[in-house]
């Protein structure tokens, strides 16, 4: 069911003019991409290159949402898809199934809020905040955490280096529990900095494509001290 939903709601966004392109995975026989076979089907719109092409604007970043089918969703921000060191890596308190259900409506707003009680957290950059209260489309879902890119995450990012925009599945490579495949969606996001207490990332759909609307907000509240 999850695979069907991803195919229905994500693929029309990324491949609006290529209906005959083979579907990279299905319920019966999922096709996977192996690190040793960069030319296999990965739902990519480009082929692997030795250097990543320049981004159209300095505010555009590469956003990747990935995770095991029944595990937590991770959100990764990169300035260069060929680098396995992300500029931001968050583990969200959402399961893949939960996120896909929200995507059925075509609109997903993930808000991460923090109310720092320590002076050092009140003054640090937003991306250095270690823990967030997470909301998805207005509903509290738990707590998100900033993570450092461990070897298992770097391995996942290296596997997806040849993918610039797309969605699909890849082998788990030791990521998460068991041998579940990793589902992913990669796209360009517009990075908007409001001020020191607010940043956001907004999915950029291809031209003339009415695809998915997805945004991730980082917000820090500054409540006045009570007397």
Number of strands: 10
Low-confidence stretches: 11-52
The chain-level mean pLDDT equals 75
SSE string: HHEEEHEHEEHEEEE
Compute the CA-based radius of gyration. 18 Å
Distance between the termini: 53 Å
Please, how many helices?
5
Provide the helix percentage: 10-25%
Number of domains: 1
- Percent of residues in beta strands: 25-35%
Tell me which oligomeric state these chains represent. Answer: single chain
Shape: globular
Q: Based on helices, strands and strand pairing, what is the structural class?
A: alpha+beta
Question: How do the strands of the widest beta sheet line up side by side?
Answer: 1-2-3-6-5-4-10-9-8
Main sheet properties: 9 strands, mixed, barrel
Q: What is the topology?
A:
Elements: H1 2-9, H2 11-14, E1 60-68, E2 72-78, E3 88-95, H3 96-103, E4 107-114, H4 119-123, E5 131-136, E6 139-146, H5 151-159, E7 166-170, E8 182-195, E9 198-203, E10 213-220
Parallel strand pairs: 4-10
Antiparallel strand pairs: 1-2, 1-8, 2-3, 3-6, 4-5, 5-6, 7-8, 8-9, 9-10
Helix pairs in contact: 1-3
What do you see in this structure?
This protein is an alpha+beta fold. It has one domain (2-9, 55-220). It has helices spanning 2-9, 11-14, 96-103, 119-123, 151-159; strands at residues 60-68, 72-78, 88-95, 107-114, 131-136, 139-146, 166-170, 182-195, 198-203, 213-220. It has a nine-stranded mixed β-barrel. Helix 1 (2-9) packs across helix 3 (96-103). The model is unreliable at 11-52 (pLDDT under 50). InterPro entries: MIZ1-like_pln (IPR006460). This is Protein MIZU-KUSSEI 1-like. Residues 29-52 have a biased composition (Low complexity).
């Amino acid at each position: 069911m999850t695979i069907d939903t991803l195919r229905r709601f994500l693929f029309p966004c990324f491949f609006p003019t290529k209906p005959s392109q083979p579907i990279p995975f299905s319920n019966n026989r999922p096709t996977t991409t192996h690190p040793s076979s960069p030319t296999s089907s990965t739902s990519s719109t480009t082929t692997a290159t030795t250097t990543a092409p320049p981004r159209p604007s300095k505010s555009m970043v590469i956003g990747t949402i990935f995770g095991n089918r029944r595990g937590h969703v991770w959100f990764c921000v990169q300035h260069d898809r060929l680098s396995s060191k992300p500029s931001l890596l968050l583990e969200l308190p959402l399961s893949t199934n939960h996120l896909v259900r929200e995507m059925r409506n075509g609109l997903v707003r993930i808000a991460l809020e923090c109310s720092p009680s320590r002076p050092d957290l009140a003054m640090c950059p937003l991306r250095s905040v270690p823990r967030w209260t997470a909301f998805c489309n207005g509903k509290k879902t738990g707590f998100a955490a900033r993570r450092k890119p461990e070897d298992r995450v770097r391995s996942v990012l290296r596997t997806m280096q040849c993918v610039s925009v797309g969605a699909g599945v890849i082998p788990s490579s030791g990521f998460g529990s068991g041998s579940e495949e990793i589902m992913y969606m990669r796209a360009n996001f517009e990075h908007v900095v409001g001020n020191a207490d607010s940043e956001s990332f907004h999915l950029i759909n291809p031209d003339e494509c009415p695809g998915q609307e997805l945004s991730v907000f980082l917000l820090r509240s500054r409540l006045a001290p009570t007397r």
